[in-house]
Amino acid sequence: MLSVDEARAQLLAKARRLATERIALAEGAGRVLAADLVAHEPLPPFDCSAMDGYAVAVEDLGAASAASAVVLPLRGESSAGSVPLQMDPRATCRIFTGAPLPVGADTVVMQEHVTATGDGVRFDAVPKRGQNVRRAGSDLAQGAVALAAGSRLTPGAIALASMLDLPQVLVARQPCVTILCTGDELRAPGDARRAGSIAESNSLALAALAAQAGAVTRVAPIVRDDAHAIEAAIEEALEGTDVLVTVGGVSVGDHDLVRPALARAGVALDFWRVAIRPGKPLAVGTRAAAHVLGLPGNPASALVTWAVFGMPLLRALQGDARPLPIPLRLRLLGSLKRGPDRTELVRARLEAHEGDVVLRAHDNQGSGAATNLAASDGLAVVPPGESPRDAAVPVDFVAWTAF
Questions:
Q1: Cα separation of 367 and 42, whole Å?
Q2: Between the N and C ends of the chain, which has fewer C-beta atoms within 10 Å?
Q3: How far apart are CA 176 and CA 244, in angstroms?
Q4: What is the dihedral of CA 265, 270, 275, 281, to 10 degrees?
Q5: Are strands 120-123 and 114-117 parallel, antiparallel or unpaired?
Q6: How many Cα atoms within 13 Å fall on the side-chain side of residue 151?
Q7: Full set of structural domains in the chain with CATH
Q8: Which residues, 6+ apart, have CB-to-CB distance to 223 below 8 Å?
Q9: Is the pLDDT of residue 366 over 90?
Q10: Under the phi-then-psi rule, with left for phi > 0, alpha for psi from -120 to 50, and beta for the rest, what region is 378?
């Protein structure tokens, strides 16, 4: 069996960035830039005030002090959106946050630090030159790369792109994911109940995670445990998809028919089985440009393997510079069994404990338990080992929202 890192490295090595498209910035949330965003003018574009106050030239204040205050005549007002004023020598100008600095001024004194006296303003101290002024280009110089290709458009990145006056951006096309669930026992939620049936729970959960990575999903009809029906469904699902996700039927039981059906459909499997718990029977392969992930059918196994392997694949296909989540290092409270040969992917929740943020593993780590999926904040990665786990040693933790 491959380790988690070995399996994921093999999977991502075959990921090729999808085609690009130009979209409106308003539709860019969660998309991945396919080209650098460059500042075509300084940001901010002109010297402006960072405070409400009074614009002055420091040299006009001489040696102002509480004992020898300087009063400058008030001449004009600069507000946000106005044309920069030409300030009179040895005068001051009322100015507001975001307003252009008048020509001839070099400093802004906060309104709380002066005294208005009729037509003049009293200064009791000499400020530092450049105080409370945002210089042109202080955030970004003209020609600087504001956002590099491979960056995902977060709300903050969208704000920056807007400031750069960019109504459109070039991004990677969204991956298309097709989810195909198999099993005689499955029925769609809300369908008429029949003896021995259960509501299919994996497709919507997998689709929700895929959407988090910027993918679009389609859910194929549930397929019964019939070799020919499964092969036909795989053939149909592969049309027009970037990633085919099958759920169930990839182990070695008499009713595990998906893996041989994938082979008959021309899918070349790169590996099968990974040294993890839950989710060991994971099949990964390709047919032409389409990637195929055959997930186990139990809810925890399916969601965990999709998070650990499918989500990085979706990000890599979009050219995301950070396809893998950055884990936190946290202590995991409580006892937990572990084996010598498999990494444990433990569903855990965050808790405050004695002034620290820690993890607490759910008691039921069974691969068929859905309650712990709903109650967990993410996955703790417990490496294999012969000896009991030392609770004082932190482990890697990735929140569901970070995958």
A1: 54
A2: N
A3: 9
A4: 0
A5: antiparallel
A6: 19
A7: 4-19+173-317 (3.40.980.10), 20-43+138-172 (3.90.105.10), 48-134 (2.170.190.11), 328-402 (2.40.340.10)
A8: 180, 181, 182, 229, 230, 233
A9: no
A10: left
Strand ordering across the sheet containing 120-123: 107-110, 53-56, 92-95, 70-78, 120-123, 114-117
Q: Which two tokens stand for residue 285?
A: 């392969």
Residue 163 structure tokens: 């400031």
pLDDT of residue 16: 96
Whether the link from the prior residue into 155 is cis, omega within 30° of 0, is no
Question: How confident is the prediction for the chain on average, in pLDDT?
Answer: 95
Q: What is the pLDDT of residue 289?
A: 96
Query: Residue 253: its pLDDT value, please?
Result: 67
Kindly state the percentage of the chain with pLDDT values over 70: 99
Q: Tokens 């949330």, residue?
A: 29
pTM metric for this prediction: 0.90
DSSP states along 300-316: HHHHHHIIIIIHHHHHH
Q: Report whether pLDDT(254) > 70.
A: no
Spatial CA neighbour of 180 closest among 261, 108, 114, 111: 261
CA atoms within 13 A on the CB side of 396: 13
The three-state secondary structure class of 125 is coil
Which residues 6+ apart lie within 8 Å of 206 measured at CB? 177, 179, 217, 245, 247, 295, 302, 303, 306, 310
DSSP 8-state assignment for residue 48: E
pLDDT greater than 70 at residue 375: yes
Contacts with 150 (C-beta within 8 Å, 6 or more apart), sequence order: 32, 33, 319, 320, 321, 322
Q: Which residues pair with 343 in a beta bridge?
A: 276
Question: 120 is written with which tokens?
Answer: 């003049």
Give the angle 241-233-247 at the CA atoms, nearest 5°.
Answer: 75
Distance in angstroms (rounded) separating the CA atoms of residues 281 and 283: 7
Helices (H), 274-310: 299-305
